[in-house]
Design brief:
The complex is a heterodimer. By secondary structure, chain A is mainly α. Chain A contains 10 helices and no strands. The longest helix of chain B is centred in the middle third of the chain and has 28 residues. The radius of gyration of chain B is 20 Å and the shape is elongated. The chains are: A mainly alpha, B mainly alpha.
Amino acid sequence: MLSPSTVLIAVIVVAVVLVSVLIIKPSVTVTRGGKILAFVSIFIFPAFSGSMGFSEHMERSKTTAFCTSCHVMQDYGRSLFVDDLLSVAAAHFQNNRVSRDRACYTCHTDYAMFGGMKAKLRGLNHVYVQYFGKIPNKVELYNPYNNRECLHCHGGARNFEEGATHILEEGRLESIKSGQLSCLTTGCHDTGHDVKNLASKSFWTGSEATTDSTSAGSAQPAQEEK
Amino acid sequence: MTTQLTRLEQRLRRSGLMAGIGLLAEFISLLWNHPIAFFLFLGVGALLIVAGILYYFYSIVTVHEPAEAPTPRIQDQ
């Protein structure tokens, strides 16, 4: 089956051919057929391919390879392969708890109204900072990580609802659900991306998925560290 | 032999050029999965495509080509 990218490229090629006819011989627009050609080649095809292109780029921007293509994010991509399942990000990535090709987007998008849009706008700002601004020494989240993002998947799951430590004392589960007790900063799941200690870590190399350029891309560990 | 283009044809050619270059920029941006490709698409491709479309519509509503000589009407009796 044809992929959306292939269809889009075909549409662009047809659009370029049609518009070339008009550029080379604009006098064809004297006839009714020429006027229709102009409308189709300057409006219909470019508008269609533009909207398809926008959609395609938006989908691509959700991929792990896209997020880790900037130098500053590459250590975070490598941290997904750390051979330490106490690292929340690595455990989720390696055990397919999140889609590997959308690992960053799955956990770092606010699951609230406009969450995706905010993430995109911040992404545009990141690109601006990458090329025209001052890249901070330490990459930090805009806001403390919200339990809501964890509960989007884990909420209602048996191993969460009945987890021994989650129901250790009365009211703890409710505190977690309401966000009063953070999943990450209260000592339970406190290692997100262990980028500080990457040099001393061993890396997981045991899946075919790690060699899939579309899913892992530059997130793969450096060869010498395998 | 070259023929003189009318004002509307010149404008259509220009709008076609803008849309065409925008489409080529979009094509190039699709060959690369990187934030810069997204910016190339948005800042060059989409911008030129929109500019070409708007210029096309502007041209067809503002440029009035002289009408061809009217064919003589047959007077109704």
